[in-house]
Amino acid sequence: MQKLIIQRFRVKSEEWKNGYFFYSFICLDVLQNKCNIMKKTIQFLCAGTFLCSGLYAQTKQDSAKNLADSIKAVTITATRTEKDVMDVGRSVTVISGDRLKQPGANTVAELLSQQEGIFVVGTGQLPGSTQTLFLRGADDNHTTIMIDGTPITDPSAADGAIDISELSLADVDRIEIIRGSNSTLYGSSAIGGVINIITNNNYTPGLHGNFSETGGEFGKNTDLFEENAFLNYTLKNGIYVEGGYHRFDDKGISAAVDTIKNPLPYQQNVQNNFAKGDVFSKIGFKDSTWNIYLEYRNTNQINSIPEGAFEPANNYKGQLIRGYYNGLVRYNISPHLHIQYMGSSSLMQRHYTQDTTVTDAYNDRLYQSQSYTSKARTNDIQLSYDYKTSQFIIGGGSTYQTMDANTDFWYTGSPSTVSSLDTVNPSQTIYDVFAQADLNGASLAPRLKALSLLLGARLSSISGFGNNVSYEINPSYKVSPSSLLYFSYSTGFNAPSLYQLYAPDDIPGDPISLGNNTLTSETSNSVEFGIKHRVSNFYFTLSYFSTIVNNAIEYAYLWNKNKPVDSLTYSDFMGDTYLNVGQETTQGIEMSVSTQLDKTLSVSANVSILSSSLSFSNSSVDTAHTHGNYVQIFNGGNFLTSSSGNIKYTDLLRRPGTMANINLTYTPVPKLSFSAMVRYVGQRTDAQYIGTSGPYGADMATTLSDYTLLDASASYAITKHFLVTVKGANLFNTTYYEILGYNTLGRSFYLNIRYSF
After folding, report:
1. What region, left, alpha or beta, does residue 343 occupy, with left being phi > 0 and alpha being psi -120 to 50 degrees?
2. Residue 524 and residue 508: Cα distance in Å, rounded?
3. How far is CA 12 from CA 8, 46, 512, in A?
4. Sheet with strand 143-147: strands edge to edge
5. 697-733 pLDDT, tens per residue?
6. Which of 316, 376, 369, 322 is nearest to 349 (CA)?
7. DSSP 443
8. Element (H, E) at 372
9. What's the pTM?
């Protein structure tokens, strides 16, 4: 039985994450009054802010076009209409196309990690590692990721969230980040925010294209190669067709490392290899009246999964294949009235196999195979009307998801276990109607133009869960033409994932199912207020936020109710499941500044301070589902009993309390530029499972140290179309960990050659 429980931990916890057979523990360490490095960082950024504000007046109007374009960006994601970021009463970041072409980030995760409030676990690990995004400390499935305005998810993953490593920067025009709850406009999962990856569709007539090749190494006997190719041809009448290819492969070191004091004896040493190919195409038509396109993306990635901190993974391989369609039809009925339809369809397959060729410390052998298939479809239609300086939107849509999972598990001394969801056919449909009024005072009287008020509401009908109403109240006031004060109160929701509802068991005899079809939606209340200031090439933002998530869904172990907790043994294990038992609270402060110091030097910096807690109460446990057995919350390992009262954690897994980024760019001559980026990540807590501790093994935790990384790069434009970039990452060869038991990249070097026309 002990072997089964250990294996249960290995298999189930990893299924919970993303099918990589390793559970992603979600947590944070609050440091704001404890960490001297953090205090110095804030002092430095504050000093830099005042210094920059004193220098901006000296900045010439014609300098730093790229920085100016970024500062004066327009967003369409924040309000579903084109709007200057200075007129949006929310925390918004637009990463422009020019910024995407600059050195400093090889992946989507790297680029997002440089923005305030975002921590992507897996960014610094080996290529192909699972990348989990936390925005403002929210759970990874509380942020909506979109491509061209349509959400992209993984319905077969434990929490439904996409693995960020699946995405690439190929064909990306810009990325828009909207922080805070946006369920009013984007429905389920938008509690933490929305990230919209927008592809190119705005070319002048003619032939356009680019090709880039990247080569690099990140340790002895390692290498990686990446290619991007893209072509677009646009006719004078507005018809265009484009397509491209992205390929990545590497030969790496082992992704796992011994970071526990007493490593389990069966840890193996397996080299990590990863290969990925993306094909994408788009055909469309665009003029002053119509905007129509259909695009297709296919992703195929294969990796050998190395050993973890807690289990052997000898001869363990995984493959992911996704076909993704999305399209848009927009018609401008008049200069003020517009109607549009957006839709997407996704088919995804994940398959993992492991057959240990050697036995472990118990002289046992393991074979397991898991296959996941998921489908998702979205439809969204909206009508928008511009009245003077105000905009009105009404719309509706639907989201449909379905999944299937098949597992085959065999362990020496145990019967073969085969499970499938064929007979369950798990699926979920959400229907929505929404409305938004973005009111500006100038629509009533010119003297009221400084005052704006955004009101929005959404009614969602979730199959099997009834209705949910989300709403938003967002007033803002322009203190001056260059300064905006804003406040926002919004509610949101997140429907349970299909896996959480219908997950199959893989150990025979469990009296309680892993999936729990009595789960209810998580709901949230969010408050945010802040200030934005922009003059010439100087931009400053400061915001405070607070979010409370009720009915938080947690993974839990169940134990025999007929014995005292302190006398439980492995034989008293009654299964594992998902429960609505928690209330999650996050709050924090974010600050960013961007400026051009002179014609040759620009600087941008940001800092995020996060405080978070998770509380549980035995009174919230669904005893009908647990059969009255003891509940042990995986996140922290504590037991919920009648005598335990309320339990509160302030060190949630894998979410740092402090983060800061500083980026400097020096351009001595137009063809040559140098950049340096410093990134600081504060302490985090991670789970450490100790098998010798019996049922209390999950109640172990360790603190991961804070770290500071330095990257630098240089770019030279040989010709107008030919650019060469050299980059060094983690130049101080800092040893750090994002996940207990997994390696991160040391000092690395990359060469990129880009040709565009």
Report:
1. beta
2. 37
3. 6, 45, 14
4. 92-95, 172-179, 193-199, 143-147, 150-151
5. 555 678 899 999 999 999 999 999 999 999 999 999 9
6. 322
7. G
8. strand 366-387
9. 0.88
